[in-house]
Design goal:
By secondary structure, the protein is mainly α. It has one domain. The longest helix is centred in the C-terminal third of the chain and has 34 residues. The termini are close together. Belongs to the PIGU family. Keywords: Endoplasmic reticulum, GPI-anchor biosynthesis, Membrane, Transmembrane, Transmembrane helix. It is a multi-pass membrane protein.
Length: 440
């Protein structure tokens, strides 16, 4: 028996819908209509209120406890620490090699972009960049919602929710107040997401190459990008590779015509030599493991994030947005040096999920409450372990492990709900076979 496709993009679903009485799904919104929705969103009163509130909260938090947040392992890792970046900048100004020691792990391009190390100036720049990240994600949500056939009111509501879920997310606020370099990476990923949803293949490929220069693991986002850009897949990959090569060469030139930066940036990610505690799963395991097993398990852990790329790309080949969303969750869980900020884009894009898929999720309440409880418990367990000495590393690692399990379970639940709901719609008579997945 030949089955119909069960994973369709919003644009494809709309074409196959036979309900001619609904004017929203007769045809795609015109470019003029899309622009009007964007302008309506920008001029909406709630948008201005959310932006002003986000700026005030970030400024107050930075002034009140910014110094404490900079030292938090949940927000600051060797790759995104502002202190390490400033140390590299000062070394360059004194004509010293920033990679002579083992403190600096950012690329030469990143260090060359910062003309000052003044925290007050950096904090203002960070706030502006963070606001732009939220606006970029909201604009991308307008394009996706419009293509899905939502009304103007629904589109504005969804875009406003995306803006709120990012700018008013406590993790995003704390990340900005801690002056973490994750703010820059999130901005790049937000631009990539917007170009992805607008199907701007050149912009998406170029921005993704910059993100990959910042951290190797955003390269997994290339799979959903290829699925999204039908008819331009080959040129998308070519532009990505050429941009990546050009940026690497620029790093080579800015690094004093030396490849030394590769060892301290990209290979540092791969070798996992710094076992400073963070919210990931690498540091505790490799602290406890025997040295002669280190290389074997290091290869397994590094491959873990990549083995899901091909199965997800095949299963969700006609649902590229869901593929993108799950890929963000994989990055937040399986990279060697994660922070809480790595999941902010994933959380911000959740309002874009159709309501029927929310209803199909089995453990949404448990997963959400677990993530919230773990985030609250992380600084408590850290205090018990490091400050008061009444606990041990298991206290902190246990909380971070539950956080990662809950986050990846939420991603799995989304895929399960999507497949089950679409299968029930496409094959309503096959009651006994609804738990199976059929491909063409």
């Amino acid at each position: 028996m030949v089955r119909k496709r069960i994973h369709d993009e919003p644009e494809k679903k709309k074409k196959n819908d036979n309900d001619s009485d609904n004017p929203l799904i007769k045809k795609k919104p015109s470019p003029k209509g899309t622009v009007s929705r964007e302008w309506t969103f920008i001029t909406h009163s709630n948008v201005l209120l959310v932006i002003i509130s986000a700026i005030i909260v970030r400024f107050i938090l930075y002034k009140s406890c910014g110094g404490w947040l900079i030292s938090r392992p949940e927000l600051s890792t060797p790759l995104v620490s502002i202190d390490r970046l400033k140390e590299g900048i000062l070394l360059i100004k004194d004509l010293n090699d920033p990679y002579a020691g083992d403190r600096v792990h950012v690329t030469p391009i990143m260090m060359s972009l910062f003309p000052t190390t003044d925290d007050r100036v950096i904090s203002l720049v960070w706030i502006v960049v963070d606001i732009l990240s939220g606006m970029a994600l909201s604009m991308g949500s307008i394009a996706y919602s419009s293509a899905r056939g939502d009304s103007i009111e629904q589109t504005i509501t969804i875009a406003t929710n995306v803006l709120k879920w990012y700018l008013l997310n406590p993790i995003s606020i704390a990340t900005c107040a801690s002056l973490s370099l994750s703010v820059i990476l999130i901005f790049l990923l937000s631009l990539f997401t917007t170009a992805f949803l607008y199907q701007k293949w050149f912009v998406a490929s170029f921005v993704l190459s910059i993100s990959t220069q910042f951290s190797l693991y955003p390269i997994v986002l290339l799979a959903p990008l290829i699925n999204r850009m039908e008819g331009r897949r080959m040129i998308t990959v070519i532009v990505f590779l050429l941009s990546l090569s050009a940026l690497t060469f620029i790093n080579f030139m800015l690094g004093g015509i030396s490849w030394k930066f590769v060892e301290h940036t990209y290979l540092f990610n791969v070798s996992v030599e710094d076992l400073t505690p963070n919210v990931g799963i690498f540091w505790y395991f490799f602290t406890e493991i025997f040295n002669h097993f280190y290389d074997f398990f290091l290869i397994l852990f590094q491959l873990n994030i990549f083995v899901y790329v091909v199965p997800l790309a095949l299963t969700l080949r006609n649902a590229s947005f869901l593929n993108l969303l799950v890929s963000f969750a994989l990055i937040a869980v399986f990279v060697p040096y994660p922070s809480l900020s790595d999941a902010t884009v994933f959380f911000a894009l959740l309002p874009l999920i159709d309501e029927k898929y929310w209803k199909g999720m089995r453990h949404l309440l448990v997963e959400s409450c677990t993530i919230l409880a773990c985030i609250i418990l992380m600084p408590i367990m850290w205090h018990l372990w490091i400050v008061s000495g009444s606990g041990n590393a298991n206290f902190y690692f246990g909380v971070t492990l539950f956080y990662n399990v809950a986050l990846i379970r939420m991603a799995i639940d989304l895929v399960y709900s999507y497949v089950k709901t679409d299968l029930a719609e496409k094959c309503p008579d096959d009651i006994e076979e609804k738990s199976l997945i059929y491909f063409d």
